[in-house]
Amino acid sequence: METTSLLLRAPSANRVYTAAAGPLARAEARWVLGAHLGTAPEARERRIGGMDALEIHASELASDEGARLLGSLSATLGVLDLVEDDPETPVLRPRNPPDLFRHPADLETILKYPGKTNEQFTALLVNLAAALSTRRSGLFDGSLSLLDPLCGRGTTLNRALRLGLSPLGADLDRTDHEAYRAFLSTWLRDHRYKHTVSATALTVHGERLGPRLDVELAADKQTLRAGRGQSLTMLCCDTTRLGELLPARSVDALVADLPYGVQHGARADGAWQRSAREVLRSAADGWRRLLRDGGGLALAVNRRTLDHEAADEVLAAAGFRILSRDGAFRHRVDRSIDRDVLLAVPTDHPQLEQLSALDADQETDRP
Ligand SMILES: C[S@@+](CC[C@H](N)C(=O)[O-])C[C@H]1O[C@@H](n2cnc3c(N)ncnc32)[C@H](O)[C@@H]1O
């Protein structure tokens, strides 16, 4: 049965780039649903009852699994099915997507600081990176291994924790590292989770790199003791060292908001740089080694300091193919940030063709 679902968009979505919120939500829906269903469904923007919505057609979305997928999209406020037995009087039937989250929303929202990646945009990046992985359903059962190799104060890690994952993150900035440790410890205490926090030194071959944070958490003692809780690791080091610190082929989805050269510089070759190009060049090989077969990456970039062509050249040299077209997720954040998202997979990804076709679908179906 053909199903038309209306995905109501959160009204507060992307206050900074409101005009781009519709096309962004649509592009995310097509990539994420397309990867899960095998082919991108038709999706168009629509206003209904004075609210912004995406109208999505796909028979596969009638199931509970479909409701969960729709509910997981970063801009979803609510999901309704459109029943048009009588075109004169269409009926909207509410769906009840299962709750995706293991922890309260304040885990993502409490921390505020200059340079924080918008939480909703972070959710979009996480969804897109997970969709590229052949283990994409692990986003819903806690088994997807997710790394943010430029994690700042942990916006991606908090999203991943809320989803029930056990994420890994790394950042060079010691102040960010300490601020995140303090925040998470307090949050876990305040919310009465059973947890352990271990702050140790990160060393490799006897070289001391910086602090390391390992957290274990669970709702009750038994789960924690049995090692069935969630874990989080945050390393304070240069992202180019991650290949030496983490096991090869251990990551399904890599999410990063690359430095824009505005609030954050990019550290590469011993100097701070405006463009993320050099940090990407020196880190991409290591990131590639960390990815499991069938893994993928979603990178947010400022096109003013790193354009698609330059990113493509750097990523291709490390064995990646960018699947998203130039500007697929383009939106203006402010005068100095013209942002896009690059979706890339290793060239030996087993679903390369199927995923590449999603980009072609988007091309022909542009708003
Ligand atoms: C756009 S910010 C990420 C913000 C993060 N998503 C958040 O919400 O907190 C980019 C981050 O890259 C980090 N960075 C830049 N060069 C680095 C390098 N070579 N190794 C590790 N981190 C680096 C900066 O310290 C900064 O935190």
From TrEMBL:
One Pfam family from the UniProt entry?
UPF0020
Q: Which domain of life is it from?
A: Bacteria
What the entry lists under InterPro entries is as follows: RlmKL-like_Mtase (IPR000241), SAM-dependent_MTases_sf (IPR029063)
Q: The Ribosomal RNA large subunit methyltransferase K/L-like methyltransferase domain covers which part of the protein?
A: 122-269
This one is known as Ribosomal RNA large subunit methyltransferase K/L-like methyltransferase domain-containing protein
Q: What species does this protein belong to?
A: Brachybacterium fresconis
